[in-house]
Amino acid sequence: MDPLVAAYLETVAILSMSFIGFSAIVILLRQSDGRKLLIAIVGALLPPLFEFWQLPPTAAFRLASGFMALVLFLCGATVSARRHAAPRQPTPLYFRLTIVTPVALLVVAFALVAFGFFDAHAEEAYLSVLSAVLVFFVITWLRVLNLIQPARSHTDTESPAFAPMMRQEPEHSAAAET
Fold first, then answer.
1. How far apart are CA 85 and CA 37, in angstroms?
2. What is the domain partition of the chain in residue ranges?
3. Is the whole model's pTM more than 0.85, yes or no?
4. Are 132 and 106 in contact, with CB atoms under 8 Å apart?
5. Helix (H, G, I), strand (E, B) or coil at 151
């Protein structure tokens, strides 16, 4: 494996693990974690593992892409059901568009690499899709925390993310004191 590719995969794994560590701290504040980033960590570790077993680089990246496509497909196929089980309401359209559709696109991208559509550039294609996975899960995590897009029912200053900063003492009226 090209040392530059190995270094990039190591960087993706380190970033993902660091983000999961940061997520553990935030769990104390919100009920959200960074477990989905484990997928990015596994994706970063698969190609070197497969090359360790003497697979040629192209085959290692194609096999890793197939595995990632399967894992993301299972995640995407079950996310609506898992989300629906909690509130017992249909999955909103905006959720399907912002979560399910990007996951489906990532599955297709990994599948294209796995089936050899980018055979001459399997490494570059794999790294590009894996980077998209990392960025997508970080953005999704930040949205869950209402840091990028506050909940629809709140204004920016009423968002739960800003609640601790916006709490004020109740005003005392002159009538209440007398």
1. 22
2. 3-167
3. no
4. yes
5. coil
